[in-house]
Amino acid sequence: MPEEQQEGSEKYNRLYLLIIERYKDYIEEKERLSVAELPTLVTPYNPSVVKKADEIREGFDSYSYDLNFYEAGAKAFDFVKGNIETVVLPLQFWLTPEETLEFGMGDEIDKNILLCSMLIALGNPSAKVLMHIKDGTRKSVVYFEFKDRVHMFDFQEGISTFGSTEEMMKYFNIGEESTAYEFNDRTYKDIA
């Protein structure tokens, strides 16, 4: 990109940031979702999500859910981890999975919502986003059940497998001093 275009682009970016910061409270007020609305963010049937899931399936000679889902899920995890840049915006703003794919960026929650959508599109309706908030720190992961095991995809810690959902919850040390909830495209549940 020529230097003049780059300088112009940087000026626009600074201007947009100024506008966002000035109207942050107004934007966040309009952007807030109730917990009942969180499932609307998980969109496994969105054409962009379906297309990405189909691309993953095409990587197998003859995709079979029973034989290939776990590996396909790991490929979806690797795709999101490697191709979606983590950004922290100066305000709370929800992106849809389609927007996360389009821009190739999102915060941790956006990335987890995209991954959950992709896992459901790959055939596993048990995939859920798990949010845990403790001491002001927010942690989000995606987990799903497959072949009598619970698998957790965590962009910070990697992939973990547990014998049960209860075992996974103990791993998070979810208790009275924390807030936890999970959701996918069909359900929302308070855990703590």
Characteristics:
single chain; alpha+beta; 192 residues; C8orf32 fold; two-stranded parallel sheet
3D structure, described in words:
With 192 residues, the protein is an alpha+beta fold. The chain folds into two domains: 31 residues; 146 residues, Roll (C8orf32 fold), CATH 3.10.620.30. It has seven helices and eight strands; from the N terminus they run H-H-H-H-E-H-E-H-E-E-E-E-H-E-E. The strands form two sheets. The chain has a six-stranded antiparallel beta sheet, with helices on both faces. Strands 1-2 form a two-stranded parallel ribbon. Strand 5 and strand 6 form a beta hairpin. Helix 3 packs across helix 6, helix 4 packs antiparallel against helix 6 and helix 5 crosses helix 6. The termini are far apart. 27% of the residues are buried. The model has no long low-confidence stretch (mean pLDDT 88).
- Rounded to an integer, what's the Rg over CA atoms? 18 Å
Helix content: 40-55%
Largest sheet: 6 strands, antiparallel
Sheet with most strands: strand arrangement: 6-5-4-3-7-8
Oligomer class? single chain
- Counted by DSSP, the helix tally is 7
CATH fold type of the largest domain: C8orf32 fold
Low-confidence stretches: none
What count of domains describes the coordinates? Answer: 2
Give the overall shape. globular
What are the secondary-structure elements, in order, as H or E?
Answer: HHHHEHEHEEEEHEE
